[in-house]
Amino acid sequence: MASERQIAANRLNARKSTGPRSGAGRKRASRNAYRHGLTLNITSTVEVAKQLDKLARKIAGNTDDAITLECAGEIAQAELELARVRRAKVALIERASAFGELDPPQLTVTQMIQTLNALDRGGRHIVPKPIDAAATMPSQQPERLAEAIRRGLPQLRKLDRYERRAAAQRERGVLELADRIKSEHNL
Length: 187
Prior knowledge:
Elements: H1 4-16, H2 23-30, H3 46-60, H4 66-99, H5 109-120, H6 143-184
């Protein structure tokens, strides 16, 4: 049983962890799932649905049992999802290797203020050039690849969640199919 002091501490912590409070913060957080497109259902196109059906039939073998085909379909969907996440990871590393960063360079607040002050004083519109991230990348492999991975690591860690979820779905499907096969053959 929790003490009154623990209950009060839990309530205080719960109030602190309610997510963004400002309108801009909530709007930004609502777009998090769309950053890389991995939350979209992969069976949304006819081409992917055909690929999914083909893989499911290959996993199920020569059977017309609906339950077995359903289990194989779950495994196939998870396998295609794993491939999609891994392609996203490779694309992220390639982008970091090619451009030296994942997002386009942006001015700092200080640089923006300096630019606006120069304009107010009638000066030329001088926008400071951001540091070229590609220039700081090593030129030779494997150092360039290692640096690209290091720069993309925060995003790679976020994608890891989707990969773990797909792998767990595949594992559940495999176990379910194995149980189904055991029960059919009375093993």
